[in-house]
Specification:
globular; 0% strand; 52 residues; mainly alpha
Length: 52
């Protein structure tokens, strides 16, 4: 698990999610998050929808 994943999880738990999905995608495109980490974070942000 990357530090970026852990920080993102903490932000989601605190409810500080404004603009976070875009930042997660940028980290993923830069290779700082794995596909699995990205999908888990997107699912946490949007529990009613499925990640790609």
């Amino acid at each position: 698990m990357s530090i970026y994943y852990k920080i993102s999880v903490a932000l989601i738990k605190k409810g500080r999610t404004e603009g976070l999905e875009k930042k997660i995608d940028i980290l993923w495109m830069d290779g700082k998050l794995s596909d699995d980490e990205r999908n888990k974070l997107i699912t946490m942000l949007n529990p009613d929808t499925k990640a790609e």
